[in-house]
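Re: the pair you flagged

First of the two:
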Amino acid sequence: MTLPVAAAPLKRTPLYALHRELGAKMVPFAGYEMPVHYPPGILSEHLHTRSQAGLFDVSHMGQMRLAGATSLVSLEALVPGDLQALAPMRMRYTLLLNEQGGILDDLMATRLERELFLVVNAARKDADLAHLRDRLGSAATIEPLEDRALLALQGPAAASVLSRFVNGIARLGFMTATEVTLDGRKCLVTRSGYTGEDGFEISVPATGATAVAEMLLARPEVRPIGLGARDSLRLEAGLCLYGHDIDETTTPIEAGLSWTIGKRRGAEGGFPGAAVVLRQLAEGVTRTRVGIRPEERAPAREDTPVVDPAGAKLGQVTSGGFGPSIGGPIAMGYVDSRYTAPGTPLAVLVRGSARPARVVRLPFVPHRYYRG
């Protein structure tokens, strides 16, 4: 008789005790106990972030330091983005690809003065670390920053709130970084996030994370926000979630992420999967990620089949649910590329019943990033 291997115990972020104190409902997510929502609920947390400011614990994400004289060039060889064009304290959203052009992970890369700071997805951080060490070898030193937490302050009031603690932070440009002191602790702050709203991500020493979070939550504009609203916010913003909308079976072109391919990188190639990706860029693809608006109240959730009005299979939903800012169901998914024009009628098979829907432009709500 073979006994089942016990599941690994769930990890906890440095803010775990604070989440419990705030009444969060905790759920397993990417190997961690994470707050899915607080007493006000997902709908209230979502709308508050859109109107004021929400504070998210994203400490489960992987933070890494990449150092070495050739680290920038070496990392660029593994992604389609133009990292060499980054000025110090600037950042870029980019992708790790496999040899078939499939997406191993999406990540943020920030160029500091002498090194790179990476933020990768929680479920992929161990695989990413192994992949980077294998592919970079001695060209760069990779250090996982396990002694740091990561907070995201998102929403139209985020800049005014953070300005009360850091002079001049409101002038920081989108996709730009700066090193600041918060509550006596050195932090790396980037003007970025994954809600479609203006906001900041704050990398803070783990030992000071609770104090910094409590300092921000003491402001009346700020409320704690859980994973539920984080998901509905990013869906409304038309942003991909790894493992759902993108994975090793999807390419940047299919996913509508061709903008991540730098002009120079597209001309030179040389990154993993370049032959596939550049051919798709030139010739097109057979399936494409689109926005979908069901016309009835029933939401079309992940894996819901998408069919044409005659019932022929066109694709499937990869993310779907209720859009609080929209007041109705929204979804993203992959469909036959002949059916991607906005307004194209579709149907989604919800509980076996074909329900009318249509293709819409992404994002569902306008991005409100600070451009200066």
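Second of the two:
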Amino acid sequence: MHRMGAQAAKVADFDSIVTALRQVTPALQELWPLRITMLSPEAAREAAATAWGIIAHIKVSTSRTQIVAGSKMLHHLLPDLIPPIDRQYTFSFFTGQKMVPSDQAAFLNWFPRLAEIGTRCQGPIHDAISRRGFMATGEAKVIDNAIMGFMQQRRLGISHGGPSFE
């Protein structure tokens, strides 16, 4: 696990993670057919609640915060649904900060907004996946890549000229 700070991130006990994954199998099966580019606002809120329940139950990291490690773990299991969330890009994109008061509140707020991006940008997302680039491993990763690119351009003061999602 990668951490961009003074203290290394620590992965929780592997056997505990496996046991927890087995316990949340029904919830994972419920999310499995969903795609971030095809969710209605109501379905996005429901998927967010189910996904957060999984993240909170599994506790992939030994840290108090679970949003980063949990979303990254779920992204590997559900690459067309759950974007990996990180502090440098995702947190900054939504809040301008690298910390949030509540991981759960942030996830439940951000996921429906990410799904809105997915539904609005369905065509370009599928185009990116069809090009088969090594960074386009699923619909959710394409959204993550777009956020990273947007934030990097913003940091450099480059105008993106693209659509506004405000």
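The two ends are 33 Å apart (CA to CA).

-B.
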